[in-house]
C-alpha cells in the first residue's frame, strides 16, 4: 500500500501534548495496533481505492501511523478506512470539524485550531457577499467571529478574549 503523509494536512491541527503522545506510544508498544484505537482514515485523491492504484493520504491517525512506523509495529489491513472527499478543501474542512468534535483540547487549543480554519470561513463569507451582489437571494449570513466561537465551543465574548490574549503575545496570560 502507498500510504503517505501530506505535510500540509499533518500541520493543520495542534500536536498532541508530550504526555498524550507518550501515553499513545506506550500503549502501541505494549499492545500493538488494536481496533479499539480507531481506524487510520485515508483519502485517495481522484477517487481511488485500496483495490486500485495511487497513493492514499492520512487524514486522521497521523500520530498512530508514525509511532507504528517508528517502532516497526505491524499495521494490519483492518486498521485503515478509506474516506471519500471531492477535494482537498473538503478534506481540510472535515479534519477540522472531526478534531474539534472529539479531541480533549483546551479552550486555547480549540481557539488556535479554529483560527487555522478561519481562512475557509472568510472565503465562505466572501463568496456569499459576491453572490449577494449578483442578486442571488436566500444566502446565509455568516458572522465569522460567531461561527468561530461556535466551532470552538465557547461564547462570542470568550472567543474575543482568547483572541486578545493570543494577540498580546504574553505567554503568562
Topology:
Layout: E1 3-4, H1 7-10, H2 18-31, E2 40-43, E3 56-60, H3 62-70, E4 80-83, H4 88-102, H5 107-133, H6 144-151, H7 156-168
Parallel strand pairs: 1-3, 2-4
Antiparallel strand pairs: 2-3
Helix pairs in contact: 2-3, 4-5, 5-6, 6-7
Describe this structure in words.
- The chain has 173 residues and is an alpha/beta fold.
- The protein has seven helices and four strands; from the N terminus they run E-H-H-E-E-H-E-H-H-H-H.
- A four-stranded mixed beta sheet has the order 1-3-2-4.
- Helix 5 (107-133) runs antiparallel to helix 6.
- The longest helix is centred in the last third of the chain and has 27 residues, at 107-133.
Which terms summarize this structure?
173 residues, 4 strands, four-stranded mixed sheet, alpha/beta
What's this, in brief?
This protein is α/β, with parallel strands linked by helices.
Backbone shape? flat
Order of helices and strands: EHHEEHEHHHH
**How would you characterize the largest beta sheet?**
4 strands, mixed
The value of Rg in angstroms is: 19 Å
What is the count of helical runs? 7
Going across the major beta sheet, what is the strand order? Answer: 1-3-2-4
Q: What is the chains' assembly state?
A: single chain
Helix content: 40-55%
Strand content: 5-15%
Instruction: Provide the low-confidence segments as ranges.
Output: none
> Could you give the count of β-strands?
4
Amino acid at each position: 500500500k502507498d500510504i503517505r503523509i501530506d505535510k500540509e494536512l499533518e500541520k493543520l491541527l495542534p500536536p498532541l501534548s508530550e504526555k498524550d503522545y507518550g501515553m499513545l506510544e506506550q500503549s502501541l508498544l505494549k499492545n500493538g495496533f488494536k481496533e479499539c484505537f480507531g481506524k487510520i482514515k485515508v483519502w485517495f485523491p481522484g477517487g481511488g481505492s485500496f483495490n486500485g492504484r495511487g497513493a492514499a493520504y492520512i487524514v486522521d491517525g497521523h500520530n498512530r501511523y508514525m509511532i507504528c512506523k517508528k517502532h516497526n509495529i505491524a499495521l494490519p489491513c483492518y486498521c485503515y478506512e478509506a474516506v471519500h472527499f471531492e477535494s482537498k478543501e473538503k478534506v481540510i474542512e472535515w479534519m477540522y470539524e472531526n478534531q474539534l468534535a472529539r479531541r480533549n483540547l483546551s479552550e486555547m487549543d480549540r481557539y488556535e485550531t479554529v483560527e487555522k480554519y478561519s481562512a475557509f470561513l472568510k472565503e465562505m463569507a466572501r463568496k456569499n457577499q459576491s453572490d449577494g451582489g449578483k442578486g442571488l437571494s436566500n444566502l446565509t449570513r455568516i458572522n465569522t467571529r460567531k461561527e468561530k466561537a461556535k466551532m470552538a465551543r465557547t461564547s462570542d465574548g470568550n472567543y474575543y478574549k482568547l483572541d486578545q490574549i493570543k494577540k498580546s503575545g504574553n505567554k503568562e496570560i
